Amino acid sequence: MFVTVNGVRHEFEKRPTFYELAKAYEGEERAYLAYENGRLRELQHHASDGGDITFVDARNTVGYETLRRTALMLFQAALVKVCGGEEKRAILHFTMGSAFFLTVEDVICDSAFTETLTAEMQAMKERAIPIVKRSVPTGEAMRLFHDRGMYDKEKLFRTRIASRVNVYSLDGYEDYFYGFMAYDTSYVGAFGLIPYEGGILLNLPKREDLSVLPELHPSAKLFAAQIEGENWAKQQGIGTVGDLNARIIRGEITSTILTAEALQESRISDIAEQIAVRKDVKFVMIAGPSSSGKTTFSQRLCIQLSAQGLKPHYLGVDNYFLDRDAIPLGPDGKKDFESITAVDVDAFGKDMMTLLSGGEINVPVFDFIEGKRVLSGDILSLKDDDILVVEGIHCLNDQLSYMLPSESKFRIYLSALTQLNIDEHNRIPSADGRLIRRIVRDYRTRGYGAAQTIAMWESVRKGEEQNIFPYQDSADVMLNSALPYEIAALKIYVQPLLFQVPEDHPSYIEAKRLLKFLDYFIGIPSEDVPKNSILREFIGGGGFRTS
User: Fold this and answer.
1) Are strands 409-415 and 283-287 parallel, antiparallel or unpaired?
2) What CATH number belongs to 63-218?
3) Tens digits of residue pLDDT in 302-317
C-alpha cells in the first residue's frame, strides 16, 4: 500500500497505524492526531491505502484540546486508584485560566490529598499507558454508565440519535469523552494539582508554550460569578445537557426560560441598586469579550437605573474610533481595530471631563461606511441625577478613562460563562457558546456566513486575551450573561449555517465539530424568549436597538 505523509509518498507492506507513521515522520513537535484526506483521526487507527496524511500537534487548537482532555481522563483514572478502587463522583465545573476546576464528592481536597493524587498521575503518565477506544451500542453504553453510577451520561445518551457510542478505557477505568484522546498517558506533559475553594485546580500548560506550567492567579471575582451561574442552573435542576433535554421533553421549557430570565433580571437590578447608592458615580463602564451581550445588558441596566430614580444615557466607545486611515497597523500588517490605539483616548477623556464638570458635549458618531468620526448634533450634559452608561471592550482599561477620578466610575465586567456541562466530565467551553452566538448574529446583521465568522474567531480570541481579560479583575462587579437554555434555542438558527460551510473550506473541521456538539441538544423554538432577553441581541426580535 502507498501513503503520502507530509507531501512525501511512502510504500508499506501492511497498514501502519497513525502512531507508527507519527513516530517515523512527525517532525520536531509531537503529533497528537492526524489528518487523513482532510478527516481527523486518532493515532490508534490504521492508515488507508492512498491516504494523504499530515499531523496535528498541540500548538493546533484541536491537538491542544486533545492534550487537555487526556489529562482529565488521567485525573479520573488516578483518582479511582488513590481512593482504593472506589469511583468517587468527580465533577468538572469550569476553567480558571489555564486550569480546570474540579470537585470530588466525599473527599477533603487538601494538600496531602492532591500530593498523593499528583504522584499517582505522574506514575501513570511515566508508564505510557495506552488509551483504548471501543464502540458499543448506545443502549449498552447507557447500561454501562448506569451500573457505574454515571447517571448524567445515561441521561445524555437517552436522547442521542446515533446508534453507537465511543467508550475509552485507561488501565481499567472506563469513561465517555466528547472529542478525541491521545495515544497514551505520556502525551499529557506537564501538569499540577492545587487545592482551591474546596476543590482542585488541574493546571496545564498554555498552547503557546507547552514546556512551561504557568503560574496560577485565580480570580476570586470570576470564580464567584461562575459559581453563581452554576447555582442559578441548579435552582432549576439543570446541571448538564441531559437535565435540560429532560425538561424539554417534559414540556417544562417555558418555565425554565422565564425563571432563567427572572434570575438574570434580578441580578441586573441588584447592580443598579449598588450604583444608585454611590452618589459620586457618574460613569458606568461596561466591558466584556465578544458576544457577551454588552449592548442589550447596557440598555437593560439603563431601565433598572431609571427605576432607581436616575436618568441614564448610553454611549458606545466605538463612536470614538480614530478615522480609519489613522488606525495603526497590528503585527499582521492589518488595521488593528481591537487595540486601544484604535480609540481617540484624548478626545474621549476630554469629553468625559467636560461632562463631569457640568459642561455640554456634541456626541460623536462613527460612520463605519466612510470610516470617519462625525458629530451627531445630539447635545449631552450630566445634571445631578444623570449618569452615563459607557460600553466598549476597553472600558476596564484605565488607559481609556485615565482623566476621570476613580470614584466617578463604576466598572462592570460581562461575560457569557456557560453553566451547563455535557456531562460531569465533559464541559462546554464558554468560548463555544460565544462563537455560536456570534455566528447567528453575524449572519443576521452583517450577512456573514458561518465559515467567515469561524475564520475570524481565533483573531478575535487573541484580541480578547490582550485587551479584555487582563483587566477583568478591576471590575466592581461581574455578571454572567449566559442562559442555561440558550444553546437549545440557538441550535435551530446556527445549524443550517454550519451545514453551509463547504468541505474544502478551512473552517469546515470546526463547523463539523460544532454540529456534532449541537447534536447533544434538543432544539427549542424561540417564541417564549422575552423581548428584553440578552439572547435577542443574537437571534433578533428584541425590544432594543442592538445593531
Assistant:
1) parallel
2) 3.30.980.10
3) 999 999 999 999 999 9
